[in-house]
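Data card: per-record layout.
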Amino acid sequence: MFDLQEILKPGESYEVNKVIEMDDTVGNQSVYLNQLLSTSACVETFVKASTKVTDKYLPEGFITIGRSLTITHDEPSLLGTSITFRVVLRSIEGNKVIFDISARDSLGEILSGTFERAVVNRIALMDKATERAEKLRDMK
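The structure for this 140-residue chain is written out next.
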């Protein structure tokens, strides 16, 4: 394996500016919330943003995958609101990259948390998933 410390640098960041649209409310499970930014839409944005920080620097055949996520979504945001999503690479621990994540509107922070991704070999990941699927199929 290679040394991630030589490839990635803590402090690297990426921002996404977007206006909340109907697609960003899809994860809400209540008709009373269908005008509000969903936490699941935030997660999708953070996944895309974090891969922008890491994946382009990885050797051929390696990718990052989500490992753990902690989010505190403190403030509601209506359709049409402009939001800035930010990921900052906090640290590298072995094959894990840990991000601080946040989202804010013009009034301040609406969401914060941490996001951990693991650097893995894409082919080995698929082999492991296939092996697991075969075991599950054999259990039937």
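Known properties of this structure: The longest helix spans residues 122-139. The radius of gyration is 17 Å.

See the next section for split statistics.
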